[in-house]
Amino acid sequence: MKLYGAMLSPFVRKVALVAREKGLTYELCRFRGRDGFFPEFLACSPFAKIPAIDDGGFTLSDSSAIVLYLDARYTAVPLIPAEPQARGRTMWFDEFSDTILAGAGLKVLFNRLVGPKVLKVGGDEAIAAQGERELPAIFDWLESVVPAEGWLMGEALTLADISIASVLHSLTFVQQWPRADYPRTLAWYERMAARPSWQAVVAEEFPIPA
Q: What percent of the chain has pLDDT over 70?
């Protein structure tokens, strides 16, 4: 399977972690060059959004859509529960991660790191500061729901854990995480970071500009 994107993106990291947990192999592929987006990437993602995959000729973009596909096709290690309420709750956590947590956190990430240091297009500090102000209330809620032991949906790791931890990891690059004032969330995050799948994916990250 070809996975297009960069591991700085929490959404690319989400797909990579799901693949690793399932024992799948993938080739991490660049999606653009000096002259623009590669045609093979645009064939997978017509609106040039990462991540995208090519799984033996089947192409798909959007991290949540990709994960739904992978979980349905490669069923040996399920990461989205089958029971209706647990399934719905897991997908809600995934949506929370993608839109609420990332909605605030990526304001900081893009405007303090990706824009000015990676893409060299500058950043808007006012937007970064807005995201920074939004994060504590989100962290407060997360601290109230993470378990003292195990995972968000119980004993088994699910997409809920992978999605949220992926965004938190991206926030480490802009000093918004880890936070010792959220001890339950931090302990849960450290359980995630100890997994072999996590360590393998983190090893694929390119050096982050200082």
A: 99
